[in-house]
Amino acid sequence: MSGPDVRAGAAGADQGAAGAATPATPAGADASADAAAAPFELPEELRIDTAVARRVIGEFIRGQLAQAGFDRAVLGLSGGIDSALVAYLVAEAIGADRLLCVLMPYRTSSPESVAHADEVVRRLGCARDLVEITAMVDAYFGDGEAAGAAGEEGRTASALRRGNLMARMRMAVLYDRSVTWSGLVVGTGNKTEALIGYTTLFGDSACAFAPIGDLYKSQVRQLAADIGVPDAILRKAPSADLWPGQTDESEAGFSYPELDRLLHAMIDRRRTHEELVAAGFAPETIARVERMVAASEFKRQMPPIAKLGPRTTGVDYLYPRRRPGSARR
What we know:
The chain is mainly alpha-helical. It has helices at residues 31-37, 50-68, 81-94, 111-124, 134-141, 159-181, 191-196, 217-227, 231-235, 256-268, 273-278, 283-295; strands spanning 73-76, 99-103, 127-130, 184-185. It has a 4-stranded parallel beta sheet with strand order 3-2-1-4, sandwiched between helices. Helix 3 packs across helix 8.
């Protein structure tokens, strides 16, 4: 893999987004009262019809499971808003009794994360597994006292490397649990993360299908509020919980609403650099985000195949997942 493969970049790297979101203040409203009432800022151009979104995503979830011949799902529940929203959407689409949520903390994970994940499980009434990944990660990097499989060099591994391995260990657990649960692994990544490369290949980006992959983080918050995700999750600063005190927005210098507005104009509305500047976005911010999107393109595509034969899988040998005669025994 070229370049840093990262969910959250090292301090100063072009991989995350920073600063806690500030609640929006409608015209004429009292600022302090609104700040207390609004759990997040939602740019007007990013507002969605939540009823339509829930219907479309519900149909998508049921369709993806049916095409693959499954009727159950499994996902990693971190205690954050993305996985909480997906858990609610899956439960709404197929029933909570067909959903398994797996909590996978590391020894440095925030206790609040597990508590919030458990509250989601309690409210939904779905099945729940707790798998501590500490032994898995420390077996490779070492535990600070003894070296692991990576040897002495692994003991000084950066938080970035450890975070990427944690993401991959969690996905290994999920795919193992998918066998015992007989369910597909559901992705919990959003559009903002995918566009800027804020994801780990074969880690949190791995899944059978991604229900909220076309929702910006701001839209995730809107839909989560609509569907009933606990308020404590809605209001807390987004974090991959890779190390103590780490937050998504504290690493890059702009908030999710700011980033989402720029990405929406750049990607969805196809505005040029000059048009974005004219719209009020800072030239240096535009250039930085453009670099992030371009540099992470390899994460958003299937691995290229050297074409030799007349029909190549993924290129010109393409079929729906569910083909006649492909029923699972």
